[in-house]
Amino acid sequence: MSELFDAVDALVASRSPLPPPAERRRLRQAHALTLDEVAAALGVRRATVGGWESGKAEPRPPEREAYARLLKQLATLYPAPESRGAPQEDTGTATPAAPAGPRGGAAEATATAEAGEPSAAPPAPVRHAAATQRPVPRAERVPQSSRRPAARKAAPANTSAPGGGYAHGPLLVLDADVERQVTGYGVGGLILDVPAKSLPALVEWTLTEARLGSEKLHGSGKDGDPLLVLTEAACERYGLPAALSEAERLAGRLPEGHKVIRQLERAGWQLTKRGLGPWARIYRPAQGSRRQCVQLCIPGWRALDGRAWGHAAQLQPAELARVLGVFAQRVMTPVGSTAVTGLHLMTALNPPTKASEPDENGKRHREHRPGSLGTEPMDPAPCEATDGHPVLAQLPRFHVRGPGERLFEEAYDWARDMTDAECMQRYLVGLDVNLAFGAAANGAVVGLASPPVHDNRPVFDAAVPGSWLVDLSHVDLSRVKIGRQWRDLDGDLLPSPFTPTGQRPTGPAWYATPTVAYAVELGYDVAPVEAWVRRESGRFLDGWYKRLRDAYVATMADLGVGEKLSPGEFLEAMDGYKSRDPELGIVVDAVKMTVKGGIGKLQEKARGGGWKPGQAWPALARPTWRPDIRAAVISRARVNMHRKMLHLAAATGRYPVAVLSDCAVYAADGPSPLDVLPYGADGKTVPGSFRLGVSPGMVKHEGTQSVLWGAEVLEQLAGDGHVANLARYIKTGEVTARDTGE
């Protein structure tokens, strides 16, 4: 009989009653449970629970009975609103408390009113983690049913909340449900109800009620505009396509006559020249000092490039809000691709203008801010200009400039065949420099807001930024100064520090100041025959480096990789570090791409089919179009890399077999970087060489492959005297295409 009873119980359990999908989600969130926690308790995948809550799937035995039991217990703790009586009017909002002090609370509100500034707009209805009075894991929220009692207990909205009145943070990720209700997911678990029914109304609401934005990064700068990230469902809710057509994708925007663009125009809103595309800026002309501008990011239109943002576009709204929120707080609110954001960060941290002293009428004016790049674009020296630049319009159409006409400071792409001794070793180990271009930007002295000056009889000065025409072919790496002492090395096993290919120069060529200064450091005299120098100079990028460095180091620390680790502890901590929090892993990659892309944007090339050589292109109108600054940073990065390899060779006799940008590959008897780098009992290694660690300029393990693998790749890709660059494949060992050196 017991078997029959068990069968009956199983039959009942297979049909355990469940609340509707929306109520399942409400109950989970009311108890501040994540999808991961529920999935772990029931022994299913996170996506499975998500499917149950969206109504796309229904649980089956044996999980159904346990799931029903969980929801029943939660329903007892958090009854639905209709079971607690008629809903009451929401009279308040739960927001983080304002800081104590003379500028907090009512005191600041009174001061603002006395100053004649417009009072803050009424707050948007908000559901915030703070209202639950308990920790909320990552980006979870207080459900709608729990919001009203919590809001009643909360103090009235504080117009002086941290962030210059931006109490709700820099951004929202907007999502819409099947009933077309829009919810905004913000930083720190914040959830806002979004009442706007159209895109113009959404922009208006964002600027008047949402209390979104970010404080300026410099006293002379501007506050950051609010960012709205629209999911596919939100796009459809506001009349936008979930994805762009092929023609729209190629154009990078919706057509001018699109109905939503007409809606914006009728409401008095304008779009920038890039139109309504993956990253759009909607604005009205500023009134006084008050900006009226909202930025849109549309992941479904490929706004979040996978090369920089990984799988961010596939995240749930709350998770995406966390990723972008951490980036916004530690770097800045994204304003486009990571490259565009990196460039904007330079200006945000080092604004071109400042307020003048009051004139006779007590009025202040904008004036040039020393140390900045100014407000006007600047032509480069002819040797610094990219092909097709207007300053080269006099050259014949198909003229190819050589090293004696063009500054060619680029990252390393060098490789050589392995020696017999290296072939007898077992492994090839890759070492990768952390934030190499960021570390090179730190301390770089570059030209500022004055044009370059031509000098036909220059005397080299390492303190003066510029471009120098000089013959460095006499520098012999077989005998160089290291630490002021002459050392004999095998120069054939080292790349030249003066060319990106690593080949020894054969005559006069244009170089940036750091490259020429390195030739002097190695013990050789230099005699430039011509130069373009910049007398007004400064360390323009120092603040930019520091902010990105701090963002990188802080995020790595959150992933368990700290600065104070020993070499062995560091390697252990780096093993699978992104898997500890994949969302923060995305942030790390985005920070790295912001560094690299920001430097690259300093020399943005012409794009678009309508451009012809000799014509200006839009990027040239920016004061931040500065190929000379890019050249100085890349020169420093390449020189820094060479100096480390030189010191290691002098101390250990080890030479690189391949170098690609910031990655060097060495042969070793063991698979670890510790088999390449000599560390003593005191934890120290060769001064001036590679050091393991998380800080920019230090190195991490890029990957290890066998020497046999390396020999096979070299043989497979050999041809026309070309040696394959093993650093390109060392990370995974996969060779996906023939190595052309590009």
How would you briefly describe this protein structure?
32% of the residues lie in helices and 14% in strands. It is of the alpha+beta class and 742 residues long.
How many helices? The count is 22
- Determine the fraction of residues in helical runs and give it as a percent range: 25-40%
Low-confidence stretches: 83-122, 128-148, 150-163
User: Mean pLDDT, rounded to whole units?
Assistant: 87
Question: What would you call the structural class?
Answer: alpha+beta
Side by side, the strands of the main sheet go 1-4-3-2-5-8-7-6
Q: Provide the β-strand percentage band.
A: 5-15%
Oligomeric state of shown chains = single chain
Ends apart, CA distance between termini: 76 Å
Strand count, sense and barrel status of the largest sheet are: 8 strands, mixed
The radius of gyration over CA amounts to 30 Å
Number of strands: 23
What general form does the structure show? globular
